[in-house]
Fold each of these.
Amino acid sequence: MLYQRSSALFAAAKKVIPGGVNSPVRAFTAVGGDPIFVEKAKGAYLYDADGNQLIDYINSWGPMILGHAHPDVLEAVISYAKKGTSFGMPTELETKIASLAVEMVPNIDKIRFVNSGTEACMSAVRLARGYTGREKIIKFAGCYHGHSDSFLIQAGSGAVTFGTPNSPGVTQGTAQDTLLARYNDIDHVTTIVEANKDAVACIIVEPVAGNMGCIPPKEGFLEGLRALCDAHDILLIFDEVMTGFRLAPGGVQELLNVRADIVTFGKVIGGGLPVGAFAAKAEIMGHLAPEGPVYQAGTLSGNPLAMAAGFAMLTALNNEREVFSSLSQKTEYLHKGMAKVLDATSRPYTINRIGSMISVHFSETPVTDFETAAKAATGDAFKTFFHGMLKEGIYIAPSAFETWFLCDALTYDDLDATIVACEKVSKTLA
Ligand SMILES: *Cc1c(COP(=O)(O)O)cnc(C)c1O
């Protein structure tokens, strides 16, 4: 495949946009080469600026769970756009999507809409601090909660890929209020909590990690966090920006039956438009302005086009709940197919999978936390794999620290094509 036009567009972009991209993970820094510029997308396919068709396993980093340009979402956005694009006043649509979200997700009474996952997590932490009157937070190494200061303390994903685990610009003062724990290690979290008695407002966690590749929680880990939070009056925040409305209609709370105190959303909830949200029981949400003293606001929050897209997406998912099992089955099929062709090589590998999230790590040992994910990402195997797959028309995330997302528009023929590509490429992974 040729990428001449993409490369030319990238050169032009670099002159006026830092690094040529508006979010660093889009650049190919971790794998080398120039990023691909998209022209349009439909269903499971991307069409790039050079006219190549690619099978997409990123799906806009998660939102397009039903495939690109879903007719219901398109129709909703187009018809609302004709009424106006922003009012800065309440609309009935906001209550409709809020009611549907509250119906689909366990343990929440009220939800506040924002414009990104970053905003949702940042606001959830402020709410937890305001509610508990405590200042420290615990996060896990390798979990990503957006790019706000409190979280850029050895964060995963982009920051790791770019080798700046502590971003310049984040102050020491902020850093000292974020305590870092090891994912899947309840003893480590317990030690941190006990060393910071009555000081921890919340523990924020990706209940299924997706920003160091896909790393499901070990049995008992989330239950352990729940018990620890209950024992110490700490709020448990599930960051379900990636997993919400993807792993089950009610997210990981429903899938693994563990209750969080505050839940954050993004990605799928906006149907491809910029939407984030955070939600909790009424008692906690009552602390939020204008009902309570914890301030949080947004000029474009609850934007009608974004709410229309999100409402259409959640409605489609709520009405077609078999999508979640169909996605799981497709992901399992892909897993088995790739495992078979990789087993035939001498290259050690690990595949992690849950629901429609999957990642391939070229590692001899299981990948269960940030340390093991980082160890698996050393060496050139992933780079070779990425570029090999791309040559075969398969677009996976350009970093070993990212999960792949399946969308329901993928057919079994697409999955077979992916497995055949994987077989070809695996032979080049000496
Ligand atoms: C993507 C992501 C975020 C950040 O969301 P943005 O919309 O990119 O700001 C936060 N948490 C998790 C788990 C994510 O995957």
Amino acid sequence: MSDAFAYKVKGFFGRIPSEPHKLTERTTPTKDCIVLCHLGVLEVSNGNAWEIEITGMVGRPMRLTVNDLKRMPKVTIASVHQCAGSPLDPDKPTQRVCNVTWGGVRLDDVLRLVEPDPGAAFVWSIGADAGEFGSVDCGHYIKDLPRSRVGVDVLLAYEMNGERLLPEHGHPLRLVVPGFYGTNSVKWLRRIELRKERAPGPFTTRWYNDVVAEGVTRPVWNIAPQSVIVWPAPGTSLERGAVVRAWGWAWADGGVAGVKISLDEGLSWKACAVEKPTGHSWTQFMCDFEAAAGQQSIVSRATSRSGESQPDAGKRNALYRVPFTVV
Ligand SMILES: Nc1nc2c(c(=O)[nH]1)N[C@H]1C(S)=C(S)[C@@H](COP(=O)(O)O)O[C@H]1N2
Ligand SMILES: [Mo]
């Protein structure tokens, strides 16, 4: 890899708003979006000349510049973009989420050019950033995804919300895997490798594997059902007897089937109106309730189309509780 870049920031860099009540728009403005960089932020000057290499189990290894990619058919995809939380504390729920539009080319279109070997079950993606995280020398940021997932919606993206990617979002080129946690969407993408097995490196072996049973782990890929409440905002004081229209966003890889809210710490649940899910975007839910004495909080529980629901606690997608007062 040539060193056609410099670090704007070296080491961990994050912008983690985690304030769901500010997520009032379906498409989150870029300035309000999450930013998570484990190893640093790259500053790339001549983005169009940036090269990616596609190699591994392919008939025709290839190098393509961002310019080459920009000459291929462009697609845009709206998608929820969620951080899985800190890999050092993976079960801790966070609300690091936004919903954005990505623009770029289909990875599938690019893979067609290189004649993949049918035995290549995984696509590795390697970022240009390298360094230390969690007191470990990580080498380059490397992730993987099953080749079967590439389908029509995995992108090599050069735009976010209709603008050139910002340096911290991976300018000039990043992978975007809609429906997977953000960690899988490698920024400053430098190399794609097709391989038989999962990728090596701490971000696919040491971290980002959930324990699902004793001795059994599952990669942190698909986004589990989750929801956030936008209104009421934390600390709001509601007038007793007022009809309040609670609303928020829900999402899950594969789509949301339903959302319920509880105003009594989970004793009883009320079904919400949920808009029809479209693509990988988050889905709006709303529910009217009458503010009554004794109410102190609202929680929402999303269920995915595959039938999985948000757990009460102890997992990254556990219920999100918003405290309020009734006066
Ligand atoms: N090259 C590289 N890609 C990366 C990361 C990184 O540290 N290096 N962080 C990942 C994580 S944990 C998340 S949540 C998303 C965040 O993307 P964003 O900062 O554009 O919102 O990028 C992912 N891609
Ligand atoms: Mo993340």
